[in-house]
Amino acid sequence: MSSDRHSMPQPLRLFFKGLATIIPIALTLIICLWLAGIAENGFGAMLKWFMPESWYIRGMGLVIGIVAVMAIGLLSQVWLFRKLIDLGESILDRMPVVKSVFRATKDFVEYFSSDDKDRFNQVVMVRHPDLKISMMGFVTREDFSALPFGKEGEIAVYLPLSYQVAGYTIFVPRDWCEPIDMPFEDAVRLILTAAMSRRGG
Fold first, then answer.
1. Cβ-contact 156, 170 below 8 angstroms
2. Half-sphere exposure (CA, 13 Å, Cβ side) for 69?
3. Fewest CB atoms within 10 A around its CB: which of 61, 171, 179, 181?
4. What's the pTM?
5. Exposed/middle/buried for 154, CB within 10 Å: 0-12, 13-18, 19+?
6. How much is the CA Rg of the chain, to the nearest whole Å?
7. pLDDT one-digit tens code per residue, 178-198
């Protein structure tokens, strides 16, 4: 396989290098444009209800969408608004099936949007004392006092799967985990690309 790769014609090698450069950028732009399009179409349509269509300039919907999200973030700190949000969440939390999706999504978003920056530095290598393998993961919980399980000195480690938005959560003794001096983003990239990422070492 190695000899086939080295014997690949130069134009073909350049073509694949070009694809490797373009595809990540293109996918990122496509996702950003898709989200921007949703905001533009949704809020743009609302604006056209309240103002003459001749006054509307393309892009205003996106701007209003960004401002609306920021306003919700600001209002979420107000007691009365927070109570209304809690009421809406409590309704969703009582609906069968819906509550499972809602809870999982809420926990996931809150974990990654938290102001607690320390959690993003807890990259560890899990080493079983009897197995000759190691797995990289992220410490997600160290206090089990509010749960009906968890032993003293035990922590929860999330092990993402490569090329998938999925993973396993394992509960292991703390001394099985070796802290790694690596930024959270580099560790995520390394795991999700099956260690084929050239960044971070």
1. yes
2. 8
3. 181
4. 0.47
5. middle
6. 23
7. 888 888 777 877 777 776 655
